[in-house]
């Protein structure tokens, strides 16, 4: 099994890499930091391929994808995992650039990741594209305007792509994590219910990917919470979350 994975150098990405390697996969590891990628690859069983690249650079991602396809004979599973999480308040001019960075990394880079693989997967009549979204895409939260918007867009984008590719043999899987203990969540100034360790998340996520699940919230308890929040009338939702602490702005996150 050949797996191409962005945002591989830390957090959820590194945990997914370890889980796939444990199951015998050959990995194409993508992140900006070559040293972190090479250290990760050296710690994994099997032989893997490191592709240092910024996921917001579509030509760099296309080049990495081409190199991985040539080296392995074709990706069976492609995971768009890279993302950033930073507090954004629209009222501040300086936050507008941060808003754009979040959307480009969390949404456009997902399309950049999938694009170079679709034609070859269509030709083979098989393959799986996986988008890592978030339960934060279910309802908007204060101070997380960009992040919630980006994850809502990722969920809708993956759904559109899934329906579009249904007859080609290509599966599209959306994984919506709840709270996972990673560098992205380490500075969150609020309670994180059902907080998961990355290894536990990765095990469940890989099971869902290999099963071809169309949409999976992990853990399931957060899926139930998300459904309840979606049903909550706006007035009650606003009252419950209006005083929630804000995620730290700009300095809190950077792409993997």
What percentage of the residues does DSSP assign to strands (E)? 5-15%
> Any idea what the shape is?
globular
Compute the number of strand runs: 7
**SS field, number of helical segments:** 8
N/C terminus separation: 24 Å
Rg, rounded, reads: 18 Å
CATH architecture: 3-Layer(aba) Sandwich
Overall number of structural domains: 1
Helix-residue proportion: 40-55%
Broad structural category: alpha/beta
Q: Which spans of ≥5 residues are poorly predicted at pLDDT below 50?
A: 252-256
Please give the largest β-sheet. Answer: 7 strands, parallel
What does this structure look like?
The chain is α/β, with parallel strands linked by helices and 256 residues long. It has one domain (2-252): Rossmann fold (3-Layer(aba) Sandwich), CATH 3.40.50. It has eight helices and seven strands, in the order βαβαβαβαβαβαβαα. It has helices at 11-22, 34-43, 58-72, 95-124, 145-165, 198-211, 220-231, 234-241, and strands spanning 2-6, 26-31, 49-52, 77-80, 127-132, 170-177, 215-218. The protein has a seven-stranded parallel β-sheet, sandwiched between helices. Helix 1 packs across helix 6 (198-211) and helix 4 packs parallel to helix 5. The longest helix has 30 residues, at 95-124.
Short précis:
With 256 residues, the chain is of the alpha/beta class. It has eight helices and seven strands.
């Amino acid at each position: 099994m050949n797996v191409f994975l962005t945002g591989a150098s830390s957090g959820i990405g590194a945990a997914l890499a370890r889980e796939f390697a444990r199951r015998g996969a050959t990995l194409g590891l993508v992140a900006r930091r070559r040293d972190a990628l090479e250290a990760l690859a050296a710690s994994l069983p099997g032989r893997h391929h490191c592709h240092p690249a910024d996921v917001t650079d579509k030509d760099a991602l296309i080049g990495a994808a081409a190199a991985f396809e040539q080296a392995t004979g074709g990706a069976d599973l492609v995971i768009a995992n890279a993302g950033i999480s930073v507090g954004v308040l629209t009222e501040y001019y300086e936050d507008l650039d941060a808003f754009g960075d979040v959307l480009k990394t969390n949404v456009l880079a997902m399309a950049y990741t999938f694009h170079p693989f679709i034609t070859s997967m269509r030709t083979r009549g098989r393959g799986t594209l996986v988008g890592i979204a978030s339960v934060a895409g279910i309802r908007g939260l204060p101070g997380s305007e960009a992040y919630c918007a980006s994850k809502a867009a990722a969920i809708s984008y993956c759904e559109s792509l899934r329906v579009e590719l249904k007859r080609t043999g290509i599966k599209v899987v959306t994984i919506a994590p709840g709270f996972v203990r990673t560098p992205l969540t380490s500075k969150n100034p609020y309670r994180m219910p059902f907080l998961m360790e990355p290894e536990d998340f990765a095990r469940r996520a890989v099971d869902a990917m290999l099963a071809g699940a169309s949409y999976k919230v992990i853990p399931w308890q957060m899926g139930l919470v998300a459904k309840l929040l979606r049903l909550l009338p706006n007035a009650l939702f606003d009252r419950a979350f209006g005083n929630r602490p804000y995620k730290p702005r700009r300095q809190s996150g950077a792409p993997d």
